[in-house]
Amino acid sequence: MASAEEGGVKTTPAKIATCRAPVNIAVIKYYMFIGFTFYRGKRNEELILPVNSSLSATLHIDQLCTTTTIAASKYFTKDRIWLNGKEESLENPRLKTCLKEIRRRARTRKSAPEDSESDQQMNGITAEDKLDWRVHICSENNFPTAAGLASSAAGYACLVATLAEVYGIKGNVSDIARQGSGSACRSMYGGFVQWIMGERDDGIDSIADQVEPEDHWPNMRVLILVVSAEKKSTSSTSGMQTTVNTSPLLQYRADHVVPQRMEDMIKAVKEKDFEAFAELTMKDSNQFHAVCLDTHPPISYMNDISRTIVSLVHAYNDFHNRTKVAYTFDAGPNAVLYLLEKDVSDVLSFINHCFPPSDSSSNGETFIRGLAADVTTPNKKLLNAVHFDPRPNSLRYIIHTKVGPGPQTIEETACHLLDPATGMPK
Ligand code: DP6
Fold first, then answer.
1. Is 276 left (phi over 0), alpha (psi -120 to 50) or beta?
2. Which atom of ligand 1 is nearest to the CA of 288?
């Protein structure tokens, strides 16, 4: 493999950094505003500004994450990107925006008074040198891309976190991640995170803010029921564009429902009130999908298995006479369940009974992945009360995870996805 070189002299990249960034799953869903005067005039698509604030939990990077390595050198001939092992074009406008914005910030910060001399001149690299850099970006997900598992959120959060590390940019860069993928701004922090919609036309105040850190609610658990790992048919962006243009329910939701719901959700998180958290989560998911159906022509992300999961969760909660589990669905059929650690084994046993894996469907891979949990025969009284004929093969697999930290810098050189000597994929 060729090394970065000039005039026959081998040069290693001036800087190389690797980060891991998490997925987040919204409990109050966001909707993007796309250049339509129906809303607030000038807020536009390129900036990815939302019609309402939103709130999510960051999932643990041990189970789901993107890893990105970025090498920078003035000897690279151009910026290049490899995604999941394949070189892709950098003509993607969202990618270009993130790169441009980080470089703009590096330029304006080159003489920032708060930077120490060592920040300004790291390993003999001056701030001016950085402005000549071209970058090689290599990124991998440890889960299926574009399957409704928020891969773009982890991907853009990781890109921006790694670029910020390479260019030495500190502080809140969630507004840059937002311009890659709206929901990516929330993946810039761990724990429970709100994306404050902001008011300014330039989007500078549309940023993520940590509501509570990852250790605030340590017994909160998450089960992801992967209904389909296929690529989704409607991308969130084109779906949202049609919705913003056609759904009167969206306007009602943004103006009259979400503001109060955000307040109630923040209170439920702060007070660790699971029942309030769970009820709001389910109601918000249902309203988000109602807005999708209110779009003309309608958008339907949930399928028959998704709707069956909704019924089973309500039946489970009814049986226990309290809200022990909440479901939420994004732009795809997969269900994400929020529940407390003490109920994981019981709920998993119930789900496993209703949607058993078939030996051939799992291809020898484990059906329940992630954190350990006991799966046993479910409570007979529950099964009698629910009356459900098991449907084998409906779920591909289940991921058991918890709330986790924001993006992490990985120091071990063995973890770099690019060769530190050449800046090319390993
Ligand atoms: C349904 O952030 O994936 O998950 O902004 O077009 O990249 P783009 O879309 P994305 O939107 C998905 C939104 C959602 C709800 C949410 O996460 O708030």
1. alpha
2. 1
